[in-house]
Amino acid sequence: MIKGFLFDLDGVIVDTAVFHFKAWRKLAQKLGGDFTAEQNEQLKGVSRVDSLKKVVAWTGATVDDLTFIELMEVKNEWYLELVIQLGPKDALPGALDFIRHAHAKGILIGLGSASKNAPMILNKLGLTALFTTIIDGNNVVNGKPHPEVFLKGADGLGLKPTECLVFEDSIAGVQAAKAGGFGCVGIGSAEVLKADVHFQALGSSTPEALVAQF
Question: Does residue 64 have an active-site annotation?
Answer without folding.
Answer: no
